[in-house]
Sequence to fold (251 residues):
Amino acid sequence: MSLISDYKRQFLWRDWPAVFEALPSLNGQSVLDLGCGVGDLAAEFVSRGARVIGVDLVAEFIREARSRNLSRATFEIADLRALPDFGIAVDGVWSSFSAAYIPDLPAVISEWARQLKPSGWMALVEVDDLFGHEPLSDETRMLLEGYAGDSLTAGRYDFHMGSKLKAHLQQAGFQVTREFTLVDLELSFDGVASPEVNEAWQNRFKRMTLLREFCGRRIDDVENEFLNCLMRPDHRSRAKVYCCIGTCHSV
Fold:
């Protein structure tokens, strides 16, 4: 299964209605969708009356998003760390599952805020403790935690970004109005995973080449134990998906 197909399937496992309920009315608003992927959420914004500028660095995703031919939506290739000036001030900035790739997030949020109208809003969604699933052996848990630490040190990815969103928004000058966790049938759930969710995790492990290098000869054991953990009736998740919404009164 391609990454695009994976993304489209994963969209259905997220509790997006809870986020939209927490956002201001989108009718007539302009939204900057940062890390827009294949345009699933842009389509949701448009269906609620918003105009959308979707931004992603992956050209394949942007081509897929453009192929939707969404009214009131444009899609641009750009680095989220160095956004171009789009020539308008937007009502809201949205970014889901992109913040963890930017460990120095507060400084980048401040740059994103330059795209906002005065009193505009910003909404961030991110997972915290992606590998936080039990039961796992001590050896496997230590390897996964070691990899998470290595990723943070190298500035590649912060596996605990979700729980930091509120503090990062506040550090960037935002007034946080809502913070809550979301139901997620792939990333944060208890009990037995569906076969489709287990397959999605298999695909994720295949794509994580740096994890494979970090674990070395142990990678097959780590992957198999983790996937088996997800299929156990006593499986429990420490991972949480956070949504944090703030307004830029003081930015």
